[in-house]
Amino acid sequence: MNDDQRTEPSRTADERASLTGFLRYQRETLAMKCAGLTPEQLKRRAVPPSGLSLLGLVRHTAEVERSWFQVIWNGEDARGYWPGKVNGTFAEFDVDSADPDEAFAIWRAACKRSDEIVEATDSLDATVRWRDEVFTLRYILTHMIEEYARHNGHADLLRELIDGTTGE
Q1: SS3 for 26?
Q2: What's the pLDDT at 106?
């Protein structure tokens, strides 16, 4: 994953390549929004009372990758990277003492593992039952694109607040 540029998804790819291409693009967008910032800037929170920060988004998306692909889809016993809650919020958003290098390494490894799991699945129509629901791989990929796109909107605002950088 390159931190300062993105790979445009193909405009003529089949469905699988389109979905994985857009997911990669959204991941690269998050990395781009964080590129070149100091640890303090990555930890900077949005306006109160929000505890949202770019580093918190990186840690959160690592947890989302782990949850959807390793735990739900692949049935792995993959414990949370930052389990539990701190002050009533998910621990991944508690970044005061967080190590950005560690967070990015965990996020990249989670993305890599997710890609391996997707690659090992023959069909987008394959299903998994989780609790009382059934999911296709297509649904999970689409949901992950939505998850990143939503949080990349947050990242856009956070980055502008930090140093005025705007745009894609």
Answers
A1: helix
A2: 98
